[in-house]
Amino acid sequence: MPKNKKFAAIYIRVSTQDQVQHGISLRAQEQALKNYAKSQGYEIFKIYKDEGKSAKAIKNRPAMMEMLQAAELRKFQAIFIYKLDRFSRSLMDLITTIEKLKEWGIDFISLQDKIETTSATGKLMFHIVSAFAEFERNVVGERTKFTMNSKFQDGGNPVTRAPLGYKFVNKQLAPSENSYIIQEIYQTFLNTDTSLTQLAKKYNLSVNGLKKVLKNQTYLGKVKFAGKILQGKHNPLISKDLFDKVQEKLNKIIRR
Question: Which class is domain 166-255?
Answer without folding.
Answer: alpha beta
